[in-house]
């Protein structure tokens, strides 16, 4: 397999242990039977306020990637991983160790990106509680975890399922890609072809999907946020079939042909959020935010 050098969406994220929250900071309504987000708040996720910079940044990132569906998409809530408790701290520690190891292996660059993962509420509940499982809902790529680039949140939305409250959920994760190899779409490859590689990509131009195999799925992926949203139907944009979301023809073109580059994505995000807002976020949250190299 060929080595893939992907610089379009590369970010530099020093790991900061200050992001580990205290267990006492969890939401008071975590045990409410009527709370549709109890499965998150009971397991170390904290709802972030709509006025917060993080809520605005994550929301805008998701909506930009939704293309024409953005106008019919309503963000209901965004939850952040508190990294609290023994399990939460252990997962962050493990991610940090592998970050350092892959960076050393790759000459100082662990090739970390932000990526989306969509699923049913039940699967996301299992991921929050126990991590990713090889028993994927999609048997292609040998049951590996398939995540979508930041600019393609629409692709992750297409893999969600509506829950009993009419909500859909996607994860926003930090992913250690290291050295990537190109993988044919639908491949049953269950591990890297050699020790040289750490992850795969199904399209050398784009890319359109990241592949993280079972042997790395819970050491190279760290859950940061969960976006809960609703999509209403609109003629010419969404044509529901059962619980499915169907993109417009333009969005399908973007999804499959990589029509929007990451540089264009950042420039578009600037137009909505504003330069001053983005630079303030990068400056104040430099140990946690997605530092975009070469595009700012």
List the SSEs and their pairings.
Elements (H helix, E strand, L loop, with lengths): L2 E2 L6 E2 L25 H4 L3 E3 L5 H13 L7 E9 L3 H21 L6 E8 L1 H10 L14 E5 L3 H5 L10 E9 L3 E3 L16 E3 L8 E3 L8 E11 L17 H9 L4 H12 L1 H10 L6 E2 L4
Parallel strand pairs: 8-9
Antiparallel strand pairs: 1-8, 2-12, 3-4, 4-11, 5-6, 5-7, 6-10, 7-11, 9-10
Helix pairs in contact: 2-7
Summary, kept brief:
The chain is an alpha+beta fold.
Give an overview in words:
The protein is of the alpha+beta class and 296 residues long. The chain has a single domain (3-292), classed as Phosphoenolpyruvate Carboxykinase, domain 3 (Alpha-Beta Complex). 28% of the residues lie in helices and 20% in strands. It contains eight helices and twelve strands. Strands 1-8-9-10-6-5-7-11-4-3 form a ten-stranded mixed β-sheet. The chain is globular.
Could you say how many structural domains there are in total? 1
- Taking Cα atoms only, what radius of gyration do you get, to the nearest Å? 18 Å
Overall 3D geometry? globular
Segments where pLDDT lies below 50 for 5+ residues? 1-8, 11-33, 234-242, 252-259, 284-296
Q: How many strands, what sense, and barrel or not for the largest sheet?
A: 10 strands, mixed
Q: What kind of oligomer do you see?
A: single chain
Instruction: Give the second-level CATH assignment, the architecture.
Output: Alpha-Beta Complex
- Total strand segments: 12
